[in-house]
Amino acid sequence: MAGTSDAVAAAKRAAGYRAAEMVEDGMVIGLGTGSTVFYAIEALSGMIRDGISVTGVPTSYQTAMRAREYGVPLTTLDDNPVLDLAIDGADQIDPQHRMIKGRGAALTREKCVAAAAFRFIVVTDEAKIVPRLAGVVPVETLPFATKTAMAQLRGLGCRPFIREAVKKDGPVITDNGNFIVDCQFEEIPDPAALETAIAQIPGVIESGLFTRFAGNATIIVGAEKKCSVLTSADVVP
Ligand code: 5RP
């Protein structure tokens, strides 16, 4: 079953449920976006039915809709600027616990919520653990300045493409009303320097490089039988 979609779903479910075990009564938590976070929401729903009180800050319309459907009360960063923890997925994680996120185009709110939280719980499966970050780095851009931003992104060594919608003509529009530029990098020798360089481009809202969370990140790598839990102590120097 290893590698099948059933096995991947089981691994994601195990990671999501393990993350929910880290949530305590009275916490206000960030809720990331994606299929692995979905399982954490499902688990939280059961815990709330059993009597604990948890409130979530959703990072996307998708997560807000799921949380409401599953009876998880919601709040905002305005009302709760400091969060006890945030639970989110990732697309790639390297041995230094630097990540690429944003397949679901929710990267900006995800980074805001992760930065507001004391602990960042990343729920993932083994396929996302990579020896080095490479490939597509999603970047949210202001539509007004997307073409000029793309020229500067190209200068950082990537091939940038505006992400196209699937069931809509034209570009993906993020929950913030912006575009996503998928930047194809053959290699990323210094992810932190690249994150900084991308952030300095006018018109860039945020990138999917999450290179500064290793200190407070707990990574739950789901597996059908037993999840592994990685902390800052497991970061490869
Ligand atoms: C959305 C994200 C997701 O967290 C990431 O793509 C992982 O998704 P999934 O849990 O479905 O594999 O960054 O913007």
What does this structure look like?
The chain folds into two domains: 2-130 and 212-230, Rossmann fold (3-Layer(aba) Sandwich), CATH 3.40.50; 135-208, Alpha-Beta Plaits (2-Layer Sandwich), CATH 3.30.70.260. 29% of the residues lie in helices and 25% in strands. The protein contains six helices and 13 strands. The chain has helices at 5-20, 35-49, 61-69, 107-116, 146-155, 191-199, and strands spanning 28-31, 55-58, 83-88, 92-93, 99-100, 117-125, 135-141, 159-162, 179-185, 204-207, 209-210, 217-222, 228-230. Helix 2 (35-49) links the parallel strand 1 and strand 2. It starts with a helix and ends in a 7-residue tail after the last strand. The structure holds ribulose-5-phosphate (5RP). The site of ribulose-5-phosphate has 17 residues, from helix 2 and helix 4.
Question: What are the salient characteristics of this protein?
Answer:
Rossmann fold; alpha/beta; 6 helices; 237 residues; 2 domains; Alpha-Beta Plaits; 4-stranded antiparallel β-sheet; globular; binds ribulose-5-phosphate; single chain; 6-stranded mixed β-sheet
For the record, the count of structural domains works out to 2
> What's the end-to-end separation, in Å?
34 Å
Low-confidence stretches: none
Question: What portion of the residues fall into strands of 2 or more residues?
Answer: 25-35%
Q: What about the largest sheet? A: 6 strands, mixed
CATH class assignment of the largest domain = Alpha Beta
Structural class: alpha/beta
Morphology call: globular
For the largest sheet, list the strands in their spatial order: 2-1-3-6-12-13
Bound molecules: ribulose-5-phosphate
Number of helices: 6
Helix content: 25-40%
Query: Which sequence of SSEs, written as H and E, runs from N to C?
Result: HEHEHEEEHEEHEEHEEEE
Q: Please compute the radius of gyration using only Cα atoms.
A: 17 Å
